[in-house]
Amino acid sequence: MSDSVHYLNLFLGSGAILLQVFSAIALFLLFIGPKKNAYLAFIDKHYLTLGFIISLMASLFTLVYSEIVGFVPCYLCWYQRVFMLPLPFIFGVAIWAKDRKIVKYVLPLLSVGFVISVYQNFFYYFGEGSALPCDASGVSCYQQLVREFGGYISIPMLALTTFIALITIVLVAHFYKKED
Known about the structure:
Number of domains: 1
Number of strands: 0
Low-confidence stretches: none
Helix content: over 70%
Protein backbone atom coordinates (compact mmCIF):
# COMPACT_ATOMS: atom_id res chain seq x y z
CA MET A 1 0.00 0.00 0.00
CA SER A 2 1.36 3.40 -0.93
CA ASP A 3 2.11 6.11 1.59
CA SER A 4 -0.58 8.38 0.15
CA VAL A 5 -3.27 5.70 0.67
CA HIS A 6 -1.99 5.14 4.21
CA TYR A 7 -2.24 8.87 4.95
CA LEU A 8 -5.72 8.97 3.41
CA ASN A 9 -6.71 6.08 5.68
CA LEU A 10 -5.27 7.88 8.72
CA PHE A 11 -7.06 11.10 7.78
CA LEU A 12 -10.42 9.36 7.30
CA GLY A 13 -9.89 7.20 10.38
CA SER A 14 -9.18 10.25 12.52
CA GLY A 15 -12.26 11.94 11.08
CA ALA A 16 -14.35 8.86 11.86
CA ILE A 17 -13.20 8.82 15.46
CA LEU A 18 -14.03 12.53 15.77
CA LEU A 19 -17.48 11.88 14.29
CA GLN A 20 -18.02 9.05 16.77
CA VAL A 21 -17.15 11.32 19.69
CA PHE A 22 -19.33 14.09 18.19
CA SER A 23 -22.26 11.66 17.89
CA ALA A 24 -21.85 10.19 21.36
CA ILE A 25 -21.81 13.62 22.98
CA ALA A 26 -24.78 14.82 20.95
CA LEU A 27 -26.89 11.74 21.71
CA PHE A 28 -26.00 11.89 25.40
CA LEU A 29 -26.96 15.56 25.62
CA LEU A 30 -30.12 15.05 23.58
CA PHE A 31 -31.53 12.22 25.67
CA ILE A 32 -29.87 12.59 29.09
CA GLY A 33 -28.27 16.02 29.34
CA PRO A 34 -29.74 19.43 30.13
CA LYS A 35 -32.64 20.57 27.99
CA LYS A 36 -30.82 23.66 26.69
CA ASN A 37 -27.19 23.70 25.67
CA ALA A 38 -25.02 25.39 23.07
CA TYR A 39 -23.73 22.13 21.54
CA LEU A 40 -27.18 20.91 20.50
CA ALA A 41 -28.27 24.41 19.54
CA PHE A 42 -25.31 24.63 17.14
CA ILE A 43 -26.15 21.25 15.59
CA ASP A 44 -29.83 22.18 15.32
CA LYS A 45 -29.04 25.52 13.68
CA HIS A 46 -26.56 24.08 11.16
CA TYR A 47 -27.88 20.55 10.66
CA LEU A 48 -28.47 20.96 6.93
CA THR A 49 -24.92 22.18 6.36
CA LEU A 50 -23.43 19.51 8.62
CA GLY A 51 -25.49 16.82 6.90
CA PHE A 52 -24.45 18.10 3.49
CA ILE A 53 -20.75 18.17 4.35
CA ILE A 54 -20.70 14.74 6.01
CA SER A 55 -22.75 13.03 3.29
CA LEU A 56 -20.75 14.73 0.52
CA MET A 57 -17.42 13.69 2.05
CA ALA A 58 -18.67 10.11 2.52
CA SER A 59 -19.91 9.99 -1.07
CA LEU A 60 -16.71 11.46 -2.50
CA PHE A 61 -14.33 9.32 -0.48
CA THR A 62 -16.19 6.10 -1.29
CA LEU A 63 -15.68 7.01 -4.95
CA VAL A 64 -12.03 7.89 -4.31
CA TYR A 65 -11.46 4.45 -2.79
CA SER A 66 -13.13 2.62 -5.67
CA GLU A 67 -12.28 4.74 -8.69
CA ILE A 68 -8.85 6.18 -7.84
CA VAL A 69 -7.30 3.86 -5.25
CA GLY A 70 -8.82 0.77 -6.89
CA PHE A 71 -10.60 -0.84 -3.91
CA VAL A 72 -13.57 -2.52 -5.58
CA PRO A 73 -16.63 -2.40 -3.28
CA CYS A 74 -18.42 -5.56 -2.18
CA TYR A 75 -22.17 -5.86 -2.66
CA LEU A 76 -22.92 -4.69 0.90
CA CYS A 77 -20.86 -1.56 0.25
CA TRP A 78 -22.82 -1.02 -2.97
CA TYR A 79 -26.11 -1.25 -1.10
CA GLN A 80 -24.88 1.31 1.41
CA ARG A 81 -23.85 3.60 -1.45
CA VAL A 82 -27.40 3.42 -2.81
CA PHE A 83 -28.62 4.97 0.44
CA MET A 84 -25.72 7.43 0.88
CA LEU A 85 -25.22 8.92 -2.59
CA PRO A 86 -28.61 10.73 -2.80
CA LEU A 87 -28.08 12.48 0.55
CA PRO A 88 -25.75 15.30 -0.58
CA PHE A 89 -28.35 16.23 -3.19
CA ILE A 90 -31.22 16.17 -0.68
CA PHE A 91 -29.27 18.20 1.89
CA GLY A 92 -27.98 20.54 -0.83
CA VAL A 93 -31.44 21.26 -2.23
CA ALA A 94 -32.75 21.74 1.33
CA ILE A 95 -30.02 24.33 1.98
CA TRP A 96 -30.81 26.11 -1.27
CA ALA A 97 -34.57 26.08 -0.60
CA LYS A 98 -34.09 26.83 3.12
CA ASP A 99 -36.27 23.80 3.90
CA ARG A 100 -35.47 22.27 7.30
CA LYS A 101 -38.27 19.72 7.03
CA ILE A 102 -36.38 16.94 5.25
CA VAL A 103 -36.32 14.46 8.11
CA LYS A 104 -39.05 12.33 6.51
CA TYR A 105 -36.94 12.10 3.33
CA VAL A 106 -33.51 11.40 4.77
CA LEU A 107 -34.35 9.26 7.80
CA PRO A 108 -35.59 6.26 5.76
CA LEU A 109 -32.43 6.34 3.63
CA LEU A 110 -30.22 6.66 6.70
CA SER A 111 -32.07 3.93 8.58
CA VAL A 112 -31.76 1.32 5.82
CA GLY A 113 -28.11 2.22 5.21
CA PHE A 114 -27.47 2.00 8.96
CA VAL A 115 -29.03 -1.49 9.23
CA ILE A 116 -26.94 -2.77 6.30
CA SER A 117 -23.86 -1.22 7.85
CA VAL A 118 -24.51 -2.77 11.27
CA TYR A 119 -24.94 -6.16 9.58
CA GLN A 120 -21.69 -5.73 7.65
CA ASN A 121 -19.75 -4.57 10.72
CA PHE A 122 -21.06 -7.44 12.81
CA PHE A 123 -19.72 -9.99 10.36
CA TYR A 124 -16.55 -8.02 9.71
CA TYR A 125 -15.53 -7.82 13.35
CA PHE A 126 -17.24 -10.87 14.90
CA GLY A 127 -18.01 -13.35 12.10
CA GLU A 128 -16.05 -16.37 11.11
CA GLY A 129 -13.88 -15.98 8.03
CA SER A 130 -15.67 -18.76 6.14
CA ALA A 131 -19.19 -17.37 6.72
CA LEU A 132 -18.62 -13.78 5.63
CA PRO A 133 -21.40 -12.44 3.41
CA CYS A 134 -19.13 -10.67 0.92
CA ASP A 135 -17.25 -13.74 -0.24
CA ALA A 136 -19.90 -14.89 -2.76
CA SER A 137 -19.76 -11.67 -4.77
CA GLY A 138 -16.16 -12.20 -5.84
CA VAL A 139 -15.15 -8.99 -4.08
CA SER A 140 -14.65 -8.92 -0.35
CA CYS A 141 -14.23 -5.95 1.95
CA TYR A 142 -12.98 -8.49 4.47
CA GLN A 143 -9.58 -8.34 2.80
CA GLN A 144 -9.03 -5.50 5.28
CA LEU A 145 -7.82 -2.97 2.73
CA VAL A 146 -8.20 -0.25 5.37
CA ARG A 147 -6.94 -1.22 8.80
CA GLU A 148 -6.00 1.72 11.00
CA PHE A 149 -5.77 2.32 14.73
CA GLY A 150 -5.17 -1.31 15.59
CA GLY A 151 -7.76 -2.58 13.12
CA TYR A 152 -10.59 -0.54 14.65
CA ILE A 153 -11.03 1.65 11.58
CA SER A 154 -12.03 -0.22 8.46
CA ILE A 155 -14.15 0.54 5.42
CA PRO A 156 -17.26 -0.93 7.13
CA MET A 157 -16.56 1.16 10.27
CA LEU A 158 -16.17 4.32 8.18
CA ALA A 159 -19.60 3.69 6.64
CA LEU A 160 -21.22 2.90 9.98
CA THR A 161 -19.75 6.04 11.54
CA THR A 162 -21.12 8.18 8.73
CA PHE A 163 -24.63 6.75 9.06
CA ILE A 164 -24.56 7.18 12.85
CA ALA A 165 -23.35 10.79 12.58
CA LEU A 166 -26.02 11.68 10.04
CA ILE A 167 -28.77 9.99 12.04
CA THR A 168 -27.56 11.88 15.12
CA ILE A 169 -27.72 15.21 13.31
CA VAL A 170 -31.23 14.49 12.01
CA LEU A 171 -32.41 13.35 15.46
CA VAL A 172 -31.06 16.52 17.06
CA ALA A 173 -32.76 18.67 14.42
CA HIS A 174 -36.02 16.82 14.94
CA PHE A 175 -36.14 16.41 18.74
CA TYR A 176 -34.11 19.28 20.19
CA LYS A 177 -36.39 22.02 21.40
CA LYS A 178 -34.62 25.29 22.13
CA GLU A 179 -37.73 26.88 23.71
CA ASP A 180 -37.68 24.61 26.79
